[in-house]
Specification:
Helices cover 43% and strands 19% of the residues. With 339 residues, the protein is α/β, with parallel strands linked by helices. A five-stranded mixed β-sheet has the order 3-2-1-4-5, with helices on both faces. Strands 8-7-6-9-10 form a five-stranded mixed β-sheet, with helices on both faces. Strand 2 and strand 3 form a beta hairpin. The chain is globular and about 60 Å long. The two termini are 35 Å apart. The chain binds 5'-O-[(R)-(carboxyoxy)(hydroxy)phosphoryl]adenosine and zinc ion (ZN). The site of zinc ion has 5 residues, from helix 4.
Amino acid sequence: MYFLAIETSCDETAAAVFTEEPAVLANVIASQTDLHARFGGVVPEVAARAHLQRLLPVIDEALKQAGIELNQIGCVAVHNTPGLVGALLVGVSAAKMLAVALEVPLIAVNHIEAHIYACRLAAGRDIFPCVGLVVSGGHTCLFHCRSALDFQLLGATLDDAAGEAFDKVASILGLGFPGGPSVEREAAGGNPGAFQFPRSLLSDERLDFSFSGVKTAVLYTVHGQDLARGSSPPSGQRRADLAASFQQAVIDVLVEKTRRALHCTGLKRLAVGGGVAANRALRAALEKMAADEQAELFIPPMKLCTDNAAMAALAVEKWRQQRFAPLDLDAIPAYRARG
Ligand code: KG4
Ligand code: ZN
């Protein structure tokens, strides 16, 4: 049984082929970074048009790498929520068209839940129940994951997502797009203790996050509270220290809240996904915390942390329960979680 999965929620056009095991046979990702870099962020209309141009070649490439023909596909899966609505619509429309043409079932996959499923894929064995931490460009969520398909939201960001803060701070520091990797590179040469940026909501019992304060603190440190016109971004050691101190502030909050989620659920397994989980300093800090808590940590390799279609192998779990999507399936931009 072969599944074809499609991801077009943001700025990666991706297709994957996997079996019901699930075993991934192909995981093709066409990044649009070059298209958005000159705007300093993802432009939704540009993203949607690029998905239109690239999706069919990406699907062809995935089939080729998997060594199968289109007519061998037995099920089509697609991330239909959350994301940029125009971008999602391209993938959802293509998936419906393929399901109709091939006369196979269609399965809708939640992109956020799929980020956690990437841990299951990489582990090659069951990881549930676990605490799930999703740290991406648009979301920062802690879950009690009872099973692959039963997530309870424990906490989420009240304002900026962790990845969004990385992207905005990269822009403040005059670093390139996408911000996460460029801040990480800059931070490698800096002192994480040089600036004391706020660790928001750490004294708050809730498992919610807030990252807009730390971003604003970096902005004021760089340009002053009156945001002096024309002041140029920092350079040299000061810039590296700012990047390292910002990164440390974000990591401290993510790690501490996740530790509390382990405590309050009593779980000893932690699964982490989303683009920010590609950050080496965060990975190291989570490894240390998990070891302290005697918890098992699952973080996928980098390629499965950032957006991809292989993680839509969550569809296999729905397929086992015959949870197919109707052909009037919608693209839903906002994430709806159960609290
Ligand atoms: O999961 P993802 O690829 O897309 C969304 O679903 O949003 O996450 C993208 C986010 C971006 O904000 C990007 O800057 C961030 O992940 N990111 C990183 C790193 N690599 C990607 N943040 C920190 N360090 C990294 N190495
Ligand atoms: Zn994502």
